[in-house]
From TrEMBL, chain A:
This is Large ribosomal subunit protein mL40. InterPro entries: Ribosomal_mL40, Ribosomal_mL40_fung. Pfam families: MRP-L28. Its main location: mitochondrion. Residues 25-48 have a biased composition (Polar residues). Keywords: Mitochondrion, Ribonucleoprotein, Ribosomal protein, Transit peptide. It is found in: Mitochondrion.
UniProtKB/TrEMBL annotation, chain B:
Gene3D superfamilies: 1.20.58.1180, PEBP-like (3.90.280.10). Component of the mitochondrial ribosome (mitoribosome), a dedicated translation machinery responsible for the synthesis of mitochondrial genome-encoded proteins, including at least some of the essential transmembrane subunits of the mitochondrial respiratory chain. The mitoribosomes are attached to the mitochondrial inner membrane and translation products are cotranslationally integrated into the membrane. The keyword Chloroplast does not apply. This is Large ribosomal subunit protein mL38. Keywords: Mitochondrion. It comes from Apiospora kogelbergensis. It is found in: Mitochondrion.
Amino acid sequence: MAASVRGLFSRLSLTTPTIACQRVSSNASPVSSTIRSPTAAALTQQTRPFSSTSPAFAKAAKTAKGSGKKKKKKGKGDEPDPRIQNLKVSNPRKVPAPLRFGRNRALRHWTIHRAWLLWQRKERERQEKELARLYKSMHSACEELRQTSGPGLEEEGYLYRVAMEKKGVFKHNNFPMEYARPQVETPAREAWNHGWTRE
Amino acid sequence: MSTCQRVARPIARSMRQDRVTLGFTRTFSQTVIRRDEATKTTTTDTPPASQVPPPSSTAADVTKEAPPSQSRLTPDTATQYWEEMRLFKKGTPPVGSRRRRVAMQTSENVPFELMPYQCFQEARRVLQEDRKEKLQALSLEIARVKRLEETPADQLPGGEVKKNMRLRSMKKWVEELKILVDINDPIVKRRFEDGLGDMDKPIYRHLAEQKWRGYPFRLITQRIEQLNVVPDVLPKFEPTVDVQMFFRQRKTTPGEIIDSRISEKPPALKVQVFNPGERLVSIVVMDSDVPNAETDSFERRCHYLAANVPLSPNNTSLPLSKVNKDTQLAVPWLPAFAQKGAPYHRMSIWILEQKPGQTLDLAKLKELYSGRDGFSLKSFKDKFTLSPVGFNIFRSVWDEGTADVMERWNIPGADVEFKHARVHSLKPERKARGWEAKRQKPKYKSLWKYTKRIRGMPRR
């Protein structure tokens, strides 16, 4: 968890670990902790036991020499501020990070994406058309039933009426088959469970 | 030699040698085979492989390849420091990173659309089939439009009105199809992104408009609203062309406050129109915040007026200083200036499209507007039946250069400073009150240390 958060966070530049420094100063000696100096450099100077010069002087000498003391690199173990970590965890990115591609690769990606969108749209339109066709053919079949007379001496429209009947469909403990099974595109992977028995 | 080059050197060398022997058939994992052919192995202290002449055994390859020093001195493949320097001197700086150029030396340079990626090629096939369909639909639609145009209106149901309506919608669909044919083409996209698109073609115009509608259009409409251009200068206005403004070759964002020394010279405009064809436009630069102390109000002033300037999708550059003085320029440039103490002046730049075939009479324009003061854009627009299409704006305030600019252009009023009239309070004066105020007399001298903060008085 913590590692993933750190990974999430590696792109942000984090503030100096002030908390750690203060902890060091308080651990080192109660005397030095009474003298509060704001900078981390001064704090480290205070904790050094074998320097005879006062910390302020030592610092001044260093800057005067201009040796260009390198800033202490942030160690790998340094955790980002826990508050920011919490913030990051509780607000996960809604938008995924942008894809960083080279020019050609981005263009290829774009091409594929466009083709995929186009294919999806065509597929959708095809399905809609097919459904409309089915509906229309059913409609025309019903219309044909409505206009025919018979069988035998039955009057015109009898067949249609019978076909539209929903006898017993909405009885107690009964309902149309369409409601019982979700209407899906493809047949089930296991069409019939032959091993089923009532316990 | 840079680090990346040092890292890439062995790879580059091996690949180059492969190129000589195998002709790109096997670029990777050839190390073992190459070692066996002991003639070509190189140790680390030999000069870079590009300078090693290719083995003479493959004579055809030798003739094909140019001499190495020549081939290396191209901006695409130069990797050495001296080569880069030489290219810089020649004026053709090397392209991209050194790492890229090392890679380019051995690349086959396959054209983009033939790149051997399966999914990409499948996608291209899908897109090309779609394009073919769209092209067929387009030609069919064009034929239908032609047939409808040729039929007389009395033979059609609905007569002339219905026919025109049908024609209009069919033509609109034709335009849409023209865009749909090319919208999925990666080459078109690349050309547009490189700025190489031919704006006479509908697809590039469409892409340019999409891009403009994204951010710049929203920005300019926001400025129109924020700076109250719409009720102040024109009662209503919606920009439809892209106008960019450059002062001294630097693009300025709309509404930026420009130094008066910079706006002394007129800006160059880049006007991109999104509908086809050549048209004539007039350009107006006006100041809508000229303070008038007598009437205690603000007036308007014309800073520049040019008419009959041709504009087309491919002809976008419009430097205001370069218009024809005899046939186009009506009111020459007056630098933007704001007197001291006055609030910022809104200098708005307007592009007004003239009717097709209409040219404005310059003499009349000069007669009407050379006075500059009291210019009204609305009356100008109504008088000459123009339609405002493009807009940009900058602001000017009093700064350290304004006095000099005004002196150079013989504009009076550089010594004037505007100040707010003092408005006195209507409440009567009141004596100072409070504990401190009561203890100001010498009797309380011993307390003076504590009686400095009197309510209603400034601190001493």
